Fold this sequence. Notes:
Blueprint: H1 3-21, H2 23-26, H3 39-49, H4 54-73, H5 89-121
Amino acid sequence: FGSSNIGSSSCCLQSFLELATSKQYAIMSMSLAPHPVGIKFWTGLWKDNKDLPYSAIHQKFQNWYGHTFQRNFGRYFYAHRCGMLGSFAPMVVFMLGFKVACMYGCTLRDLGAAQETAAAYGQSGYKTNPVPK
């Protein structure tokens, strides 16, 4: 790194600063796309909630979220009358059904494997005691 490189870098820096401070460089030639939600949505939220305490804002959000969730996904839930534990009923029914389906599939698999083994090793099966004479 000689002294000639230092002089050229300061020259480049000077030309960059001149370009950056010029009016021509500061003008943007593009425009941004409009926001997908829109600025009115966000400013409306701010205006509605800026003077409220946190507990009131939280309560408003919980009400909005609960109603929106119920309207959109309420059709997929069964109306239970068993209290808090009643909401576990669909999961329990699904788990029991899944277990029965797995047991049935594994039983069919084991029966098929036993038949294939019996066919390969003769009618007595594999590793069975011989027929007494």
